[in-house]
Amino acid sequence: xxxxxxxxxxxxxxxxxxxxxxxxxxxxxxxxxxxxxxxxxxxxxxxxxxxxxxxxxxxxxxxxxxxxxxxxxxxxxxxxxxxxxxxxxxxxxxxxxxxxxxxxxxxxxxxxxxxxxxxxxxxxxxxxxxxxxxxxxxxxxxxxxxxxxxxxxxxxxxxxxxxxxxxxxxxxxxxxxxxxxxxxxxxxxxxxxxxxxxxxxxxxxxxxxxxxxxxxxxxxx
Length: 221
What we know:
221 residues, alpha/beta, Rossmann fold, 6-stranded mixed β-sheet, two-stranded antiparallel ribbon, 6 helices, globular
């Protein structure tokens, strides 16, 4: 059993070996996400920003229809990436969403998303095993970027799980790194992290999803 588990782990890590290396941690962000202060943006970048905002669903100006349309788009996008990357190995993976700043936002943003994508791909859904204990101020509103402050999780559930971390936008990468260390401490195997976007100055590099679709990140299956 141990040999089979190790072989599967090696295969999973191989499948993301061409993803970007962030301090020894594999990540993939589909789009470049322009910071709010980036000034005038092209229609393409504005469309990406709207997709992220509507997926986040933490503004009174985001209607249910807007969020549902963004949710559909993100589920399709991530399913494309994960299916092409892992293929038949998807059933060996567990999806973990980085906790949002408060319980209400966490549920609105991730509960349906996690259920849908895991059901579609055959992945295990870790959403029910993570709890928000205390609300905090979001980082973009001046909050403390210390995710240890506000969550707890069922440590027994995560033993020997092969984890794909998800967050809507990667900025510094601190959230991925800190949460990865927490999961590793309870004997999880963190395979990689994925996000809709990565904060990046406009027009400084191609959107990675375009290179992905051209086969740049393909590994031998």
